[in-house]
Amino acid sequence: MYVRGSDQSHVQKWVDTVHGLRYKDYQLVAPVATVAGAELLSGLTQAGTLQEVETVKEMAAHMERQGLQRWWRAAMGFVNE
């Protein structure tokens, strides 16, 4: 799962809620933080939407379209920063 929001406290609340659901394989791979440059693309995703992808490849393409591929690859451990 990936969450994006305009207010860090709202994002943290969402993360806390998901954590509370106790998914079997839940892992927080990156702490809630502001991503440099992400505000430039904030209008690309409508608030309150859910998008599902089937593969990691699709997720990578989505992150690239959002301008977040570098951050995502580092958070997932695909590259070292």
β-sheet strand percentage: under 5%
N-to-C series of helices and strands: HHH
Helix/strand-derived category reads mainly alpha
Helix content: 25-40%
Average residue pLDDT = 80
Rg on CA atoms, Å: 13 Å
Total number of β-strand segments? 0
Tally of discrete structural domains: 1
Termini Cα gap: 22 Å
Q: How many separate helices? A: 3
Major sheet size, sense and barrel closure: none
Basic shape: globular
Uncertain segments are none
Keywords:
mainly alpha, 3 helices
Task: Tell me about this structure.
The mean pLDDT is 80. The chain has 81 residues and is mainly alpha-helical. The protein is globular. The chain contains three helices and no strands. Helix 2 (56-65) crosses helix 3. The chain has one domain (8-75).
Helix-strand blueprint:
Layout: H1 8-20, H2 56-65, H3 69-75
Helix pairs in contact: 2-3
Summarize the structure.
The chain has helices at 8-20, 56-65, 69-75.
